[in-house]
């Protein structure tokens, strides 16, 4: 009974892992409509959130280089 239980558990874990690894490939190749419809204007939440999307990044810090305007 113990060996059969281990085989069933291992099979279930392998199936779960395989489905988790296959999901990104399935999602990338699916032909669904885009998440944001380019023919419509952005909702207010997206326009407000845009400038602040990277404010929590503290890994590199500010860029010390000054770039001249072209």
Provide an overview of this structure:
By secondary structure, this protein is mostly helical. The protein is 49% helix and 0% strand. The chain contains two helices and no strands. The longest helix has 28 residues, at 2-29. The model has no long low-confidence stretch (mean pLDDT 78). Residues 33-70 are annotated as: Disordered. This is Transmembrane protein. It comes from Vanilla planifolia.
Largest sheet: none
Provide the helix percentage: 40-55%
Radius of gyration: 23 Å
| Coarse morphology | elongated
Structural class: mainly alpha
Mean pLDDT: 78
Beta content: under 5%
Summarize the structure.
By secondary structure, the chain is an all-alpha fold. It has a domain at 1-29.
Distinctive features:
Transmembrane protein; 70 residues; 49% helix
Topology summary:
Elements: H1 2-29, H2 44-49
């Amino acid at each position: 009974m113990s060996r059969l239980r281990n085989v069933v558990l291992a099979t279930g874990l392998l199936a779960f892992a395989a489905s988790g690894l296959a999901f990104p490939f399935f999602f990338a190749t699916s032909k669904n409509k885009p998440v944001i419809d380019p023919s419509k204007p952005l909702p207010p939440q997206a326009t407000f959130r845009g400038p602040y999307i990277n404010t929590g990044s503290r890994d590199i810090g500010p860029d010390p280089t000054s770039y001249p305007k072209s």
